[in-house]
Amino acid sequence: MPDSRDTTWFVGAYTADMGGGATGIAELSSCADGSLELARVAAIADSPSYLAVDGERLYAASEAAGRIDVFTRGANGSLDLTGSAPSGGSFPCHLTIAAGRLLVSNYGSGTIGVIDTESLELVQVLEGSGSGPHAVQDGPHAHATFLLDADTVLSADLGADEVHVHRLTADGLSRTQTLTLPGGTGPRDLVQHPSGVVLLLAELSLELIVLEYVGGLLSVVDSFAIPGAEAGDHAAGISLTGDARFAFVALRGSNRVAVLALSDDGRTAEPVTSVSSGGEWPRHHAVDGEVLHVANQISHSVASFRIAKTGELSLISAPTFVPSPTFLLRG
Prior knowledge:
0% of the residues lie in helices and 58% in strands. The protein is built from no helices and 29 strands. The chain has strands at residues 8-13, 24-30, 36-44, 48-54, 57-62, 67-73, 79-86, 92-98, 101-106, 111-116, 122-126, 142-149, 152-157, 162-169, 172-180, 187-192, 198-202, 207-214, 217-225, 234-240, 246-252, 256-262, 269-276, 282-288, 291-296, 301-307, 313-315, 320-321, 325-330. The strands form 7 sheets. Strands 24, 25, 26, 27 and 28 form a 5-stranded antiparallel sheet that branches.
């Protein structure tokens, strides 16, 4: 396949060591109707469940191994393994690149590992603590980090119901604040609205929480129920349309994608609809212009939806077979 980066997507996935059916990082290419088709396996890897790209480098969280693998784009568009580093804990599930550092959220141990991107040395490990009332909150479970500005990093601890604020320094991360949320919230994912407010997805309480960072302090502005959510669902992922008018959230369990309309300042959200995800256990999703791609982990498929001007979603074509997809990254 020719290397066409504007139409290429890489897929993080679970392999046998995490009970999945993939063999590594798959490559998808865009079809004329906006859906995706499986092109090839770009790299053999062990459960590369989360991916991050920085120039010619692609980082993959090898979740079962507690390792970060580094790939470099080959001349033919393939991904060549060029290095690895310990993640700083167990079950790494999220990566953020920030000022020459790779920030790793380790779900199992609740730690955040800080890796130097040049030397691949693990330079810092931040410990987590605490637990929550939900069955999955048996201890700290670091789930995501987010670079808010050049010097500020947020992190979500799903197990402890906390969002931490850090100052990014040459030595790593210095924690400056902890925002404690109600028990059973399960903070999972973070995105920033163009207005500057931060949208936090609560996996367990099934809410979209609006946060504001002013004067060095993080606070809650408001929270909104996710439309279509059912008891026992686990919310996953937030993606925004290019104009930030709509937010999408996946619901694992009822296997739906919820749509919320956002105000111009991002401080309020109104329910629009929820639709079938086109598969089972929608783990991650990504907006591509007027199309939303959804990775359905358990049904081994990626479904693509047309986004209407009203935010409504319509399935473009039959979902594409992709083994155990957990993450979608535009190449």
